[in-house]
Amino acid sequence: MAEQTFLERGDIKVTSARVIFGGQTFALAGATSVRGVEMKPDRKGPIIMMLLGLLCFGITTIIGIIWWFMQKPEFVVMFASASGEAKAYTSRDGKLVAKIVAAINDAIVHRG
Length: 112
Known about the structure:
The protein is α+β, with helices and mostly antiparallel strands. The protein has helices at 44-56, 60-70, 94-111; strands spanning 5-9, 12-15, 18-21, 24-27, 31-39, 74-81, 84-91. The two termini are 13 Å apart.
């Protein structure tokens, strides 16, 4: 059976046999599951900066607030196989990660 492509975008390619992220390739034959995960940013730095600003009445409060709002979540494609789970791809684009996960699921279903 010929290899069918489910998604091809830049250096990302999902086919019925494999998933390619740049130089990293995952075989679908060993895939047990795939999922998208949202990784929240670490907010400790901005919180400490804001607290220091409140204690010292300084500009650091404003810097902490700006830092807080500049932080964006990352979205990760988690690829699971018999050998364990791996972070296959990371992006700030949640819609792209959802498309990749859907394409991989379609490819797994297509393999039967």
